[in-house]
């Protein structure tokens, strides 16, 4: 059955991505704490914040094994009950938290772009990133996430209309009985027997709320990204700052840009396409699982730009790799020398 094959592939991708995400983000945290340049300042705590967020996202992905599913004018996140640590009520709450992570993902980077702009402009508000005040900034993505949690759990909660519409199709595609899974998602409208369309207002309100959070995050990223880019170029032109500081600011900015593109490309664009098909009443069915796969990959690949672009981290990785190669080479040389000596010693002495 195609649905089961996709589910098996999804589970494999989620497991592999989660392991890689936890390893690479933990490694990045260690580098941030031990190898960061002194000029990094409070930004290192923001970088650690991203890594911790992505580790949590990966763990949640493995615990839930969520399956995105589009059927006509509805778009759901389905979580099977089999082999889960929690019951239906707990899984619904965790499913809404999964929604929250999606909503917070872009807001996390919006805060980073604001900080980068404050740094390059030496704005007085930069002081709010010191001490306990930094938690105010940390709370911004949390509020975005909470908005998504409430939208999923309350405005997109399971109901009679949605359940009646999806249960036969889910049974056919995934071979799951209605009592074997929980779901969250909007059922936007349904066609009645007489050909009219019955619009469901509450899901549309929820969709409007979460769309507003995504749009606002993207606007903040674009506005402060452009302002930051212009300011860095101005610093280069005036040479008012040290070359070393400008170089670091460039590295951090470009790493941040690429890091932001990762969730935008792997999460928000696929989800937007799925929602477009929902509005058009085009049934994607099991192929909506592509969204689940790209979301699972996001936390695993997002730290890579920082590791590659920031010079201190890149040089540390190269140094470790070179040291490992030297050690292996030394062992190989020592082994071959020992073998040669042993062979020579065992040669018979001519009479």
Automatic annotation (TrEMBL):
One cellular component (GO) term of this entry: plasma membrane
GO molecular function terms listed in the Swiss-Prot or TrEMBL record: G protein-coupled olfactory receptor activity
GO biological process per UniProt: chemotaxis; G protein-coupled receptor signaling pathway; olfactory behavior
SUPFAM superfamilies assigned: Family A G protein-coupled receptor-like
Transmembrane segments: 12-33, 45-65, 85-114, 134-155, 201-229, 252-280, 286-310
InterPro entries on file: 7TM_GPCR_serpentine_rcpt_Str
Pfam families, A to Z: 7TM_GPCR_Str
This protein's UniProt keywords: Cell membrane, Cell projection, Chemotaxis, Cilium, Glycoprotein, Membrane, Olfaction, Receptor, Sensory transduction, Transmembrane, Transmembrane helix
Compartments reported by the entry: Cell projection, Cilium membrane
Membrane-related topology note: Multi-pass membrane protein
Assembly, per entry: Interacts with odr-4.
Similarity annotation: Belongs to the nematode receptor-like protein str family.
Function: An odorant receptor which affects chemotaxis to the volatile odorant diacetyl. Specifies AWA neuronal cell fate via the odr-7 pathway.
Protein name: Serpentine receptor class r-10
Gene from which the chain derives: str-227
């Amino acid at each position: 059955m195609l649905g089961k094959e996709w589910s098996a592939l999804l589970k494999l991708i989620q497991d592999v991505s989660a392991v890689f995400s936890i390893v690479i983000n933990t490694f990045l945290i260690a580098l941030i704490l031990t190898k960061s340049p002194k000029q990094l300042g409070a930004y290192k705590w923001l970088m650690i914040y991203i890594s911790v967020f992505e580790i949590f996202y990966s763990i949640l992905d493995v615990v839930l094994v969520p399956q995105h599913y589009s059927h006509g004018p509805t778009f759901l996140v389905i979580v099977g009950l089999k082999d889960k640590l929690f019951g239906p009520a707990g899984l619904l709450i965790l499913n809404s938290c999964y929604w929250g992570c999606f909503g917070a993902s872009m807001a996390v980077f919006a805060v980073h772009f604001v900080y980068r702009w404050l740094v390059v402009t030496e704005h007085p508000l930069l002081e709010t990133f010191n001490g306990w005040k930094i938690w105010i900034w940390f709370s911004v993505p949390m509020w975005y996430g909470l908005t998504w949690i409430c939208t999923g759990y309350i405005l997109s909660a399971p109901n009679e209309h949605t359940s009646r519409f999806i249960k036969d199709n889910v049974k056919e595609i995934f071979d799951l009985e209605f009592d074997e899974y929980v779901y969250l998602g909007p059922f936007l409208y349904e066609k009645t027997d007489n050909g009219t369309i019955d619009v469901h207002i509450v899901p549309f309100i929820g969709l409007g709320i979460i769309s507003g959070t995504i749009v606002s995050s993207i606007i903040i990223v674009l506005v402060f990204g452009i302002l930051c880019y212009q300011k860095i170029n101005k610093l280069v032109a005036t040479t008012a700052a040290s070359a070393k500081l400008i170089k670091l600011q460039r590295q951090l900015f470009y790493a941040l840009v690429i890091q932001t593109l990762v969730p935008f490309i792997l999460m928000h664009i696929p989800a937007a396409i799925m929602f477009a098909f929902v509005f058009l009443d085009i049934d994607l069915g099991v192929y909506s699982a592509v969204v689940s796969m790209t979301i699972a990959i996001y936390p695993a690949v997002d730290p890579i730009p920082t590791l590659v672009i920031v010079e201190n981290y890149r040089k540390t990785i190269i140094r470790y790799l070179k040291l490992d190669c030297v050690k292996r080479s030394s062992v190989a040389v020592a082994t071959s020398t020992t073998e040669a000596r042993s062979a020579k010693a065992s040669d018979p002495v001519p009479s």
